[in-house]
């Protein structure tokens, strides 16, 4: 077994994330990810650090000799070749409500921000955050459709609840001879569950993407690996953000801490 597969199996058995191991090694997650992908060779300090973490000798680590408790477990494709393993995403309805309200308060009134743009902004907010921190902010599932990623039924249920509470309204307007569905906030929503880091990430994403047209954001989403590899009508898997190209990636592959 080569080095990249060895450290992936060890990490999986220890139930650690790539960020967990990167923190131990004092390197960026993206830098560690490239070790598992075989895109870079480890230096001596990294070999020693990984060996110490899993309590094996550096020579056994280099030779791919796993402890008995790891070698006794069958090695499947998902364990060795998907980095990192997918974490189960659970929709946080309170955060979803706050994220939606915050986006609408910030950019909902912009002429270009209709339903299609809103869907793409939420998608990039969640998937970009996962690329950075290995978790989604809202936990929302998005599906592959012709116009790019779209949120599933939980989004609509939150919208309906916010409409009922008088927190937003949905209207259809004319925009360049097309019907545009807009979501407009009607009162502020307390942001009790969003962290400072999450709000900073949302602000950065909105600054980067909220002036783009629906077509521009749709075209961008069509270049994103999670959408590319998903079948029509099927959910997009968060883990594929780690296979993004430079066209959509938000972390540098060799960005040391």
Explain the overall architecture:
The chain has 257 residues and is mainly alpha-helical. The protein folds into 2 domains: 3-81, lambda repressor-like DNA-binding domains (434 Repressor (Amino-terminal Domain)); 93-243, no CATH class. 49% of the residues lie in helices and 9% in strands. The chain has 13 helices and 4 strands. It has helices at 3-14, 18-25, 29-36, 44-54, 58-63, 68-71, 77-81, 93-107, 115-133, 153-164, 196-209, 214-221, 225-229; strands at residues 142-145, 148-151, 168-175, 178-185. It has a two-stranded antiparallel ribbon. Strand 3 (168-175) and strand 4 (178-185) form a beta hairpin. Helix 2 crosses helix 3 (29-36), helix 9 packs across helix 11 and helix 9 (115-133) runs parallel beside helix 12. It is elongated and about 65 Å long. The relative contact order is 0.15. The model is unreliable at 71-85 (pLDDT under 50).
The largest β sheet comes out as: 2 strands, antiparallel
Proportion of beta-strand residues? 5-15%
Mean pLDDT, as a whole number?
87
What low-confidence regions span 5 or more consecutive residues with pLDDT below 50? 71-85
State the end-to-end CA separation. Answer: 29 Å
Domain tally: 2
* Helix-strand string: HHHHHHHHHEEHEEHHH
The number of helical elements comes to 13
Based on CA atoms alone, the radius of gyration comes out at 21 Å
Number of strands: 4
Structural class given helices, strands, pairing?
mainly alpha
Indicate the overall shape.
elongated
* Share in helix: 40-55%
Q: Trace the largest sheet across and list its strands.
A: 1-2
